[in-house]
Design brief:
The protein is globular and about 70 Å long. The chain folds into 2 domains: 80 residues, Urease, subunit C, domain 1 (Roll); 298 residues, Metal-dependent hydrolases (TIM Barrel), CATH 3.20.20.140. The strands form 4 sheets. Strands 1, 2, 3, 4, 5, 19, 20 and 21 form an 8-stranded mixed beta sheet that branches. The chain has an 8-stranded parallel beta sheet with strand order 6-9-10-11-12-13-14-15. Strands 16-17-18 form a 3-stranded antiparallel beta sheet, with no helix packed on it. It contains 10 helices and 21 strands. The chain is α/β, with parallel strands linked by helices. It starts with 6 loop residues before the first strand and ends in an 18-residue tail after the last strand.
Amino acid sequence: MHPKNAFLIDRARLVTCGGTTGNGCVLIRGGRIAGINPTTIPPGTLVVDAGGKRLTPGLIDLHTHGIGRWVYERGPDELLAAGPRLARYGTTTIVPTIVPDCSPAGLKRLRDLAACLPRIAGVCAPGLHLEGPFMALAGAACPTMPGHIKLLDALLDAGQGRVLAMSVSPETPRILPVIRRLRERGVAVFVTHTRATLRQAQAALGSGARHATHLFDVFPPPPEEEPGVRPPGTAELFLVDPRATVDLIADGCHVHPLLVQLAVRARGASGVSLVTDSNIGTGLPPGIYSTPWGYPVRVAPGRGARIADPHHASYGALAGSALTMNVGMANLLRWLDALPPAQVWAMGTANPARVLGLRRKGRLAVGADADLVLWNNDLTPSAVWVGGTPVPIDTCRPSGPASQSQAH
């Protein structure tokens, strides 16, 4: 079907941007949503019978390093190969997350990755997310170095205007000028990998940082100033400041469900997004898989992706996740069952779109891009459209972690 052809998705359970669900139909024309429950339908319009299945905007992943056997930062070939696989998880937009290599070869690879984004099939990739290099805590692989404006500009120039977000640590030396320069250049500033004090976190927020990514993971509390008194830090500030938003890895091992509930209570459903932080091995059977960072990871049900080299200093530590967006959404629907389902769905659709200003994404509304997913009851996709074009779904079901959660 050509994306400019009009078609109608009929007899669907709609999850709308207004936070409601209900039975209805959606008219698609020119790659966008042309009508919700339209009163008139153009003659000759193709009708797709949804059969009463749930229809939502496609899922948007702001923080993902790879899928299957592909890691995006290895280069364009990996990213191009991975794109068509994402439909099987209901993901229609990704912001590939790169741990930047600041060498000449790394800058060239970043240029090549940015240039290939428009060519990715099966998923929309509007830009890149750089996780580092101006970090205070390394985590699994991130470099740690002080803020450096000249290096920052070199990274952004290599990104050719397609760097949408950069993650930094508030306590990194000379980070405030970096945050201000990122905002000058239209790049969203995320904070992560941090043990910052409240004052350091407030300074980062005041300079333009607005979002905390994979909250609670690599967010240890600041050092105690008085024995026995827990000091507030970045996590607490970003949960209560009205300017801030947060995202979480909802796999049950990176973040306990109780902390997910805490974040939603504090931040409100509209201030929380779902991310995967997915790594190589995601969606694959349990096993050990090599990575570009010099160590293998072991993927096992309910355990995420963990460093599998017994000689590594962080042997057994989490190294990204093995989460897919549909499983994360199933978990949220179960853990947050007191909320209206439409508010939970927004955590994987409208909320992440809002974080990066993707105005035509994440909404079931007239004028929005026709990035849509029709869901089976087990929260596997029945049909996927990106820009009104159907995306083939690989019907071979993974036997790995994606099989563990049930939809609610």
